[in-house]
Amino acid sequence: DHVLVSAQAITSGNFTSAGVAGSQTIVSYSDVAMSLVTGKTELVNSVFAANGTVSHSQTTRFTASTDEKTGVVTFSQTSQTTADITEFDSYDNPVRESVITMNYNAATGAFDIFSEAKAIHNTSFDVFGRVLTSETTNFTDSSMDTTKIKSIDKATITSYDPWGNALNQQVDTYKADGTTLSTSKTVINEYTDPVGRALGRATKTTVDTYTSIDRPADKSNMTKESVTNSTYNTQGFATSQITVSKTYSAGALISITESD
User: Fold this and answer.
1) Is-contact 204 228, C-beta < 8 A?
2) Which residues of 16-36 are buried (b: 16+ CB within 10 A; e: fewer)?
3) Taking 70 as the threshold, does the pLDDT of residue 238 lie above it?
4) Which of 19, 124, 130, 151 is deepest in the core (most CB within 10 A)?
5) Structural contact between residues 41 and 23, judged by C-beta atoms closer than 8 angstroms
6) Is 254 exposed, middle or buried (0-12, 13-18, 19+ CB in 10 A)?
């Protein structure tokens, strides 16, 4: 049986001599007939390498609402992400990249509400071009000044599924100085729903959080949190979610909390 994963109408334009689209509008639907609009994305690529590789892009995202009486679809801007890739490896994998996301402010009519800013350094890839190790510097504002560093994440991904979803990874988060450890996490993602797997939506995520990079076997000062997502809305947000948190101290389970 065939299961609908996604339906999109993509309009491309402003092609370069290398055949790369300078702009794209992607309208997403939740049905095969493409009658139920769920959102829109507008992508502008403006800086290219000689081989057509994009090094500067801007992505604007919209939500969609449909008038039940007239059927008229209205799009509302939500966020805008600007990405700059400053270094590629010999296989055109992005080595260094800066990403800034701003949310839309209806009061000013501009994308001036800060969401996130990060500098990504991908240090190794597998034969499929998937990241194996990376270091991400997170900032507190869009200036990305070194005095505005919030934290630094060092990640190692040890396995992927055939769809390119990360299954197992370790993320060590350091304070702004880059040497003082805040948390060390082991993240395990499970993809049991075929649609969710194709869309990169985990059915269950389990995170073990330690205060030591050594991850003591006796689970001292460890928190285990598992999040199970069972249903999603047409925008891709989880509408049914169960979170179970377990806290250990000196190897003993001291608390369990569950929420949905």
Assistant:
1) yes
2) eeeebbbebebbbbbeeeeee
3) no
4) 151
5) no
6) exposed
From start to end of the chain, where are the E strands? 7-13, 23-29, 37-48, 54-66, 73-88, 94-105, 110-125, 131-139, 149-160, 166-174, 181-190, 204-210, 222-232, 238-249, 252-259
Q: Find the range with the poorest average confidence among 94-103, 142-151, 244-253.
A: 244-253
Q: Which residue has the higher pLDDT, 218 or 4?
A: 4
Task: Read off the pLDDT of each residue in 65-70 and give the average, rounded to a whole number.
Answer: 91
C-alpha span between 100 and 145 (Å, rounded):
13
Q: Which residues pair with 28 in a beta bridge?
A: 8, 39
Query: With contact defined as beta carbons under 8 Å apart, do 209 and 225 qualify?
Result: yes
What are the residues whose beta carbons fall under 8 Å from the beta carbon of 90, sequence distance 6 or more?
none
How confident is the model at residue 31, as a pLDDT? Answer: 87
Three-class SS state of 234: coil
Rounded alpha-carbon distances, angstroms, from residue 21 to 29, 31, 46, 61: 22, 26, 10, 18
Where residue 232 falls among pLDDT bands split at 50, 70, 90? low
CA angle 255, 202, 224 (to 5 degrees): 15
* The pair of three-digit structure tokens given for residue 192, joined into one six-digit string: 């049991």
Structure-block tokens of residue 50: 């000689």
Asked whether 188 and 168 are in contact (CB, 8 A), the reply is yes
Q: Give which of 229, 215, 222, 220 is closest to 245, Cα–Cα.
A: 222
Which residues lie closer than 8 Å to 106 by C-beta, 6 or more apart? none
173 pLDDT tier (thresholds 50, 70, 90): very high
